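Why Lipoprotein? Reviewers of the renewal asked for a concrete example.
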Amino acid sequence: MRRHGLTSAVVTILAVTSCSGSPDGDDASVKPDKSEASSASPAARQSKAPAKTLRQVERDVQFAVAPSKLRMQDQRRGFCIVHGTAPTRNVLGKTEFEAILTLMQNRGWPLDGHAEHSDDATYGKMSLAYLKSGKWKIAMGSAPMPAEVRDAYAPNEGAITVSISWKCNDD
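Here is what the prediction returned.
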């Protein structure tokens, strides 16, 4: 059942993001002070996280998934969630996905829980993790490219998916 949930989350994000656009960022990413980041616990860093804009959050994710090009859908008026996808030449394994999470953590994005990984004959290699900083929440996953969009993303075999959400009443 747990694998089914992981599969559903990653495939749903891939399906939603198959028609995505690319934002033009105009803000630099906010980096926490190095001494503060190294001395504070993840919970303390989360509560003291500097305020970020959506563009800065998107840039943090783009930095972590580089060299894959993250394509984010445009923010829809009244919605407090955006989705994005970054095709990858190969399906990411646990080590590659953990490296992306480490880059995110170095930019002030502690894990909200723990990363889940699956590798079975039916669904292949998949990973899913949740990160949180201030009002922002990120669901990040990696999986094989779904058959429905495989031709559009050829020759890529995998994808990293991202959903960024926040509380609507905080805008």
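The helical segments are 2-16, 34-39, 42-47, 54-65, 94-106, 150-153. This is the kind of structural detail the renewal will allow us to pursue systematically.
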